[in-house]
């Protein structure tokens, strides 16, 4: 029996009685940027790893080979959603709450098309790792971002962005859980993103949850990345919400990357979104029947993020921390990448052992735990992250009961 047969046999001996689902079929019709085909050596390594897995196993406890890694940290990958914040800029001046909500929806949907080719997983951040960057927009206004790994077991990445001149504040966290499903690996994306228009306090927060991610075809066929299931966008103050369906392709029908959503205001459907998150998304007004394009990813211009030079970063800043691993991946030197990745992981384990020995509890540096949220610690952040409006906002949040 060949290696693929051995792996398939091992998987199918799981007590759960796994059967290949339609979603686990070899992908057909996916965009080239979404697919990946491994060479023989990489395929053999991945198959050897998969043969040790069982249905439902938590993949956070599995050390993945470096060739499946995207050469950047999850803390940096969150910035993909900050590539087009200009889609929110000015929304606070719109008098219609439905139009302000659609601006938030447009921004949210526009971040998914920025991703690596194929099926890649960013580095799992180590506890206390952080990433920071800044943005300068065409009109001269600025934005700043910082993220920190605030928990390792379970993994939680907290992030904070503010553009003072544009009155936009975004904070939240990601709480991913990975599961092995047979011919798929799923990343269940927990966590919530909070968006605030600082000069629209009556709106409160716009809350966004994330869809789940699926790497299909890891046992047979070409691997393809899909977004699936649902996410929720909610603004309680104005009683507006939307459930976004990220549609997975069926065995014979459907297409990749399609979405569908209804916008509901005070119990009534006021509009619908449709399209593909990697191409364009349209909005149809239920009252007038008119349709307009919310964004086209082919024409969107992402704003460059600026980071501190590598030699000026702290040892636990993402780009400096993972620099040697990144070098190895870009050089296609997997031995080098694996060596430095192992060193980082061993140092993390040793630090955990020392804390356990001394009884010292670890505390985040840039965030404060408040109930089930991580709120930016204004007293620990540089001045550029702490405009008066943001300081006042979080001061008010901290006075609220958890």
Automatic annotation (TrEMBL):
The keyword Secreted does not apply. The keyword Lyase does not apply. Residues 330-357 form a coiled coil. Residues 15-36 are annotated as: Disordered. GO terms for molecular function: sterol binding. One of its GO terms (cellular component) is cytosol. InterPro entries: OSBP_sf, Oxysterol-bd, Oxysterol-bd_CS. Gene3D superfamilies: 1.10.287.2720, 2.40.160.120, 3.30.70.3490. Residues 20-33 have a biased composition (Basic and acidic residues). Keywords: Coiled coil. Belongs to the OSBP family. This is Oxysterol-binding protein. It comes from Malassezia pachydermatis. The lineage of its organism: Eukaryota, Fungi, Dikarya, Basidiomycota, Ustilaginomycotina.
């Amino acid at each position: 029996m060949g290696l693929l047969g051995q792996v398939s046999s091992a998987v199918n001996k799981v007590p759960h009685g796994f059967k290949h689902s339609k979603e686990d079929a070899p992908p057909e019709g996916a965009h080239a940027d979404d697919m990946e085909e491994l060479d023989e050596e990489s395929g053999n390594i991945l198959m050897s790893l998969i043969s040790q897995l069982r249905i439902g196993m938590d993949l956070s406890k599995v050390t993945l080979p470096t060739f499946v890694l995207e050469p950047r940290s999850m803390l940096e990958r969150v910035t993909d959603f900050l590539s087009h914040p200009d889609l929110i800029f000015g929304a606070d001046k719109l008098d219609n709450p439905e139009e302000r909500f659609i601006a938030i929806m447009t921004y949210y949907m526009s971040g998914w098309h920025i991703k690596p080719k194929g099926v890649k997983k960013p580095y799992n951040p180590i506890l206390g790792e952080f990433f920071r960057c800044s943005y300068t927009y065409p009109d001269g206004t600025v934005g700043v971002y910082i993220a920190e790994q605030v928990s390792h077991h379970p993994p939680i990445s907290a992030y904070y962005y503010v553009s003072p001149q544009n009155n936009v504040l975004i904070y939240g966290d990601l709480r991913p859980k990975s599961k092995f499903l047979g011919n798929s690996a799923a990343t269940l994306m927990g966590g919530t993103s909070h968006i605030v228009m600082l000069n629209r306090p009556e709106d409160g927060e716009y809350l966004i949850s994330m869809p789940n991610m699926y790497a299909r075809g890891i046992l047979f066929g070409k691997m393809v990345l899909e977004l699936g299931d649902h996410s929720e966008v909610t603004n309680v103050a104005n009683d507006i919400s939307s459930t976004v369906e990220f549609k997975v392709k069926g065995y014979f029908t459907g297409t990749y990357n399609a979405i569908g959503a209804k916008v509901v205001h005070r119990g009534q459907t006021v509009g619908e979104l449709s399209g593909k998150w990697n191409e364009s998304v349209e909005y149809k007004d239920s009252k007038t029947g008119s349709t307009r394009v919310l964004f086209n990813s082919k024409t969107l211009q992402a704003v460059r993020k600026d980071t501190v030079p590598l030699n000026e970063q702290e040892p636990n800043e993402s780009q400096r921390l993972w620099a040697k691993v990144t070098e190895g991946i870009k050089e296609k030197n997997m031995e080098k990448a694996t060596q430095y990745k192992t060193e980082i992981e061993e140092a993390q384990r040793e630090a955990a052992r020392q804390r356990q020995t001394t009884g010292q509890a670890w505390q985040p540096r840039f965030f404060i735990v408040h109930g089930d949220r991580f709120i930016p610690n204004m007293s620990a952040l540089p001045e550029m992250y702490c405009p008066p409006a943001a300081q006042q906002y979080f001061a008010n949040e901290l006075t609220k009961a958890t």
